[in-house]
Amino acid sequence: MSPASxxxxxxxxxxxxxxxxVLREASGLASSDLAPWQPGPGLPSGLLERMIENVxxxxxxxxxxxxHFKVNGVDRFVPMALEEPSVVAAAxxxxxxxxxxxxxxxxVTPPVMIGQVSLVGVPDPHAARLRILAAREELLKIANExxxxxxxxxxxxxxxxxxxxxxxxxxxxxxxxxxDVRDAMGANAVNxxxxxxxxxxxxxxxxxxxxxIISNLAIHRLARASATFPREALEGEGRTGADVVEGxxxxxxxxxxxxxxxxxxxxxxxxxxxAVAIATGNDFRALEAGAHSxxxxxxxxxxILSPLSTYETTPQGDLVGTLELPLAVGTxxxxxxxxxxxxxxxxxxxxxxxxxxxxVMAAVGLAQNFAALRALANEGIQxxxxxxxxxxxxxxxxxxxDEVDRxxxxxxxxxxxxxxxxxxxxxxLRRAGSSSP
Length: 437
Ligand code: MEV
Prior knowledge:
By secondary structure, the protein is α+β, with helices and mostly antiparallel strands. The protein has helices at residues 16-27, 45-51, 87-99, 125-134, 136-145, 148-152, 187-196, 198-205, 241-257, 259-279, 284-297, 334-338, 340-349, 354-376, 382-396, 401-414, 419-431; strands at 63-71, 74-81, 105-108, 112-120, 156-167, 170-180, 208-215, 222-229, 309-313, 319-326.
């Protein structure tokens, strides 16, 4: 069957039902096949349509809560939405170990975001830079007039920087507007302010304003977390705690000295952070962009990437982990303010605002990283993954809920986690009468 044309006129103006019908017909599906898109009571159709365009339904992810987290002395049940097995369990387990030494300590810097305005065709870029810096007060005033509410709650445009870049298309002036966005992620406030400066910056520079947009490399809005993991709590799988500490320190050095490993090291950190971001209605793409570009920004001269975490030992031989990265998260505005499940999750998490949310996220990122390194330096991560994977394979092979565990256990024991084997095991079970057909 040749694919139907995707040139659908006015798709965005049609109702949800009509859009579904277009897709159903184009794919030759039955109406009942579209059931997985059905919005639930947690996210009604009307709300979905206010969030994005061309809505046909909702896409659900598993939501779990990590346990054992204590951050700055406060216990937190941490919501995590993601599709990957083992992540929630690993975070909880790491938090349980950190708890033995008081849990995580975390801090954030003031929530200052960067809005960038690029200026091209500037005849005298060095002098223009000074003219813009001299007009600082006036420019900040123009920006702040755009958001009186933010000013009332103690935020607002705070400062200006001007960078001169030399590019293939000539000199480029980049103005950075630094904005304290308080409890918001900040994109709307910052973009509005950056756009408002266009007229005055054109006049001051004698060039043309090109882009006006927030930067996700939020180097001024950092979150930091640290924790001590007692050596004796790390022993297992026939290895002493001291051996495991050595393995984690070697793993850290691997990440510090090899960009291919460092990328995966930092991905593990973001497994936890992005899961909390999704569960709390935050823009996880912005966080991912910020984290990975910060890893590049902090790389030593000649390096490409640096790990977002560090590991060292106390004089007693316990392992100390730290994490630092930009975390532009919000608890007001955006999906955090409208998505019913995000609002509920934030309530259960119990944070007072974006600052505490970022502190918890930094703790989760560190927990996730520690858990991954511990598993990797020990038995590897596949063992944990495989138990859940085996359950999925059992279900796909046709096991009923009462059969899933027995099939999965056999697959794990045999170290053969494949559909064909799952079907054979299922047939065996049913033949043996241990399960009615
Ligand atoms: C898998 O999602 C994440 C890990 O690869 C992270 C790491 O290797 O550190 C386990």
